[in-house]
Amino acid sequence: MTVPGISAPPAVQARLLDLQRIDDELTRVAQHRRRLEQASDVAAAEAERTSLRRTAADRRGELEDLRTRIGRVETDVRTVEQRLERDRSRLATTSSPKDAHGLEQEIASLRRRREALEDDELGLMEQVESVEAAAGGVAADLDEVDQRLAALRTDRDDALAGLDAQHADAAARRAGLVGELPADLVALYDRQRTRYGVGAARLVGAVSEGSNMALTGADLAEVRAAAADAIVLDPESGCILVRS
Fold it and tell me: Which of 136, 109, 117, 115 is nearest to 71 (CA)?
């Protein structure tokens, strides 16, 4: 329980409590930073934006396909109209009743074909309007989520900057305090804190604040019998016990 080879006056040992408070602050800052970096609202907004971008790409693909199909229909309409113009010219100049009859039938068939193509074109244009409206809605949603995400990231980055400043301040205070303490005492404190999570804690009466447990009668007697400058470890938590 008593650490051989290391000693320090009670006032110096008491300063380990200040060091522990600074380390607790640094731990809280690090935990808060991790929570901010993993913020669910930012992650949710990023996922929503990714989904909207995929939807926007799908709408663009649909529009490109529809416009390609409209282009093909328009080409077919022009071809039919050219054939109609050719057949009308031939009908106007033919003197053969048989040829005239055949041309009239072909002209009627071409007109039906043109009407069907124009109906197809109209249907495709209506689909274009519908998809364009949907794409506009997606674009508006994407703009909204972009703005929301930017605000969330700004808030997060501002909070992170504040934590960085708090960490730098605590780290500077820690370095200053460590420089004033015996190196072997600090090394022991750091080793115990790394192993057990607590480097130093106050002994209040019979209770260790490191473990929040009362020492046994035998352990308490041993602690009270130790020299004032002796370094005593908590048998439960392993931290350095700072005696009042």
Answer: 117
Residues in the chain predicted with pLDDT less than 70, given as ranges, are: none
Query: Which amino acid, residue 149?
Result: L
61-87: pLDDT as tens digits: 999 999 999 999 999 999 999 999 998
Q: Which residue shows structure tokens 């007109």? A: 111
Q: Look at residue 99 in the predicted model and tell me its pLDDT.
A: 81
- Distance separating alpha carbons of residues 16 and 6, to the nearest angstrom: 14
**Whether the Cβ atoms of residue 110 and residue 90 lie closer than 8 Å to each other:** no
Residue whose C-alpha is closest to residue 237's, from 198, 205, 207: 198
Per-residue pLDDT reduced to its tens digit, 3-13: 899 999 999 99
> How would you label 185-202 residue by residue, b for 16+ Cβ within 10 Å and e otherwise?
bbebbeebbeebebbbbb
**Closest listed residue to residue 107, CA positions, set 84, 86, 78:** 84
Long-range contacts of 209-216 (CB under 8 A, 24+ apart): 210/234, 210/236, 210/237, 210/238, 210/239, 210/241, 211/236, 211/237
pLDDT of residue 115: 94
Tokens 């130790």 label which residue? 226
pLDDT (0 to 100) of residue 244: 76
**Tens of pLDDT, residues 38-56:** 888 988 999 999 999 999 9
User: Judging by DSSP bridges, how do beta strands 230-233 and 213-214 pair with one another?
Assistant: unpaired
**What distance in Å separates the CA atoms of residue 200 and residue 210, rounded to the nearest whole number?**
7
Rounded (10°) angle between helices 10-37 and 97-180: 180
